[in-house]
Design goal:
binds pyridoxal-5'-phosphate, 427 residues, 19 helices, alpha/beta, Rossmann fold, six-stranded mixed sheet
């Protein structure tokens, strides 16, 4: 199994290289040369398989030259002590991806990535330092995923006072190999500082710096698994995927190409609708991102479009992916309505839900559940967005994992949004 840059077919690399470098030297993203197929015996027995076993049968094809079977098995057992259940709610199916330690689907990618990094770097004595900027959610999943992993330390930069108290505790409450820097500035400042650090000769000499952002293939591959597993529970599902950077939907498309029995997908966005527009018009126009209630999806230039575009022409993509966007007003309305029917959605998952409803009204989707089986991909637990829900008069109890995080004390250092400050802090 070889990986190539989206920008050139000339320099194939191994999974190990693609994972540990993140971005190809020419600035492209790594994609597989040939997308592997699931074994037919696996497809026919999906309904009875445990999540870990589906994970093994899916991921083995992508990593087999670099991670031996026995090691992969161990890695999966320690990554996924939780499940990805499909539940029936208010007349639809919901694929709940929030049963991990930080209560969002990013746990699936981050936990596997951490273990893969640790294994692929075995025997190296210089520790690896992961430097990452976060607007809230990613930082928590990365911090938690790498917590206690030997030979790797993590430094998370976040905008001081602009993330929720819960998010801050998830990032800055762990200690050990995880440290947190509260930057007096915006998320963009945090990102700029991280970029500058990667370009700084002194820091590069002193540390082995790596990034853990969502374009890394080792975060994407484990996300294929829950699509494969869910297609064993609901036959020929239509997955509605709340999307921002489109890593999640890209993973779904890989599951489809691997042969999982999936009908098609909805690219569900908030008003940052670059991809729904592309699906409608055929031209890809990046936009400046606008702030919404589903803030983890406020992306105007989705980084994984480059991958999708490398695998599918516009005509091909339109056959498998429907686009739909949802406004904040519609998001609020959906949360209230579905709540009154007995299920609580977070703002991101509500976008996925309402995209289905809007496509039904447009007559694009059949109303018959036996023909069209929408599965809403639920990306976060509603309690992560308690403030938004409270404004709608809905109280949500924290799940045990978040309850535990709330009891931690956030310990971070504050720095100015200046590179000299970051450097002084690191050295
Ligand atoms: C990151 C995130 C998304 C968007 O996922 P992409 O893979 O970037 O499209 C959606 N919902 C939540 C809760 C997230 O944290």
């Amino acid at each position: 199994m070889k990986y190539y840059s989206t920008k050139s077919k000339n320099n194939p690399v191994s999974f190990a290289k693609a994972a540990l470098t993140g971005l190809a030297p020419d600035g492209g993203l790594y994609i597989p040369g040939d997308i592997p197929k699931l074994d037919s015996t696996v497809i026919s027995s999906l309904a009875d398989m445990k999540y870990i076993d589906v994970a093994f049968e899916t991921i083995k094809h992508w990593v087999k030259e670099d991670i031996p079977s026995g090691v992969l098995e161990e890695m999966l057992i320690s990554s996924y002590p939780f499940d990805a259940p499909v539940v029936e709610a208010a007349g639809r199916y919901v694929l709940e991806l929030f049963h991990g330690p930080t209560a969002a689907f990013k746990d699936f990618g981050a936990r596997f990535m951490a273990r893969a990094f640790s294994y692929l770097r075995r025997g190296e004595d210089k520790p690896l330092t992961i430097l990452t900027a976060t607007s809230g959610d990613t930082g928590g999943a990365v911090a938690d995923g790498f917590f206690g992993i030997e030979g790797i330390s993590v430094i998370v930069l976040y905008p001081k006072g602009r993330i929720s108290p819960l998010q801050e505790k998830q990032i800055a409450g762990l200690g050990n190999n995880i440290s947190a820097l509260a930057v007096e500035g915006s998320f963009d400042d945090c990102q700029r500082l991280v970029k500058q650090a990667f370009q700084d000769q002194d820091l590069q000499k002193k540390f082995n710096l790596a990034s853990a952002n969502s374009i890394n293939v080792s975060r994407l591959i484990p996300q294929i698994v829950y699509y494969v597993a869910a297609s064993g529970r609901v036959h020929k599902p239509l997955f509605s995927v709340p999307s921002g950077n489109f890593g999640n939907l890209t993973a779904g498309l890989y599951a489809f190409k691997m042969g999982a029995p999936i009908h098609r997908f909805i690219a569900a966005t908030n008003i940052n609708k670059t991809i729904p527009d592309y699906l409608e018009t055929g031209s890809y126009l990046e936009q400046l991102s606008k702030a919404t209630l589903s803030n983890a999806m406020d992306v105007g230039a989705p980084s994984n479009f480059e991958r999708i575009n490398a695998h599918f022409s516009w005509e091909e993509l339109k056959e498998i992916v429907l686009g739909m966007y949802v406004s904040d007003e519609e998001t609020r309305q959906t949360i209230k309505e579905v709540f009154s029917n007995g299920y609580c959605l977070d703002p991101h998952s509500a976008v996925g839900w309402q995209a289905v409803t809007k496509l039904k009204h447009k007559g694009v989707l059949s109303n018959e559940k036996s023909i069209e089986k929408p599965v809403i991909v639920s990306t976060a637990h509603p309690a992560k967005f308690g403030e938004t829900l409270e404004e709608l008069g809905i109280q949500v109890a924290l799940p045990a994992s978040l309850e535990k995080a709330m009891q931690r004390t956030a310990q971070s250092k504050t720095i100015k949004a200046e590179f000299a400050d970051l450097k002084a802090e690191l050295c």
